[in-house]
Design brief:
With 107 residues, the chain is an all-alpha fold. It is built from seven helices and no strands.
């Protein structure tokens, strides 16, 4: 039952990746405190909640960059980044090869 609730939380997070939603709402699905939820999530998935959300957003952003003509700045705002610099920093850390792959978008 606990694993099913965790899957429900992941599904809710996936459905709301491009939205800024009340983060406290996801803990209520599992009936756990924020502390225990984060510990259980890390033990279950191997990453923290923040890492999971950041990595999923960056994955979706990369897919959109490849598939559309959307501006990078618009994409960074869409996925919750306040500045292009913070998006670039996370993208570099996430892919570890961002400089060569996205050099045409980030001159």
């Amino acid at each position: 039952e606990g694993l099913q609730r965790m899957n429900d939380v992941i599904q809710v997070m996936e459905e709301n990746l491009d939205k800024t939603k009340d983060r406290e709402a996801r803990y209520h699905i599992t009936y756990l405190s924020k502390f225990h939820f984060q510990r259980l999530f890390h033990m279950t998935t191997g990453v923290t909640v923040a890492e999971y959300i950041r990595n999923r957003r960056l994955t979706l952003a990369a897919q959109e960059i490849i598939a559309s003509d959307i501006k990078i700045i618009d994409l960074s705002y869409k996925y919750g980044y306040d500045t292009l610099g913070s998006f670039r920093y996370d993208a570099r850390c996430y892919t570890k090869c961002i400089e060569t792959y996205f050099s045409e978008w980030f001159p």
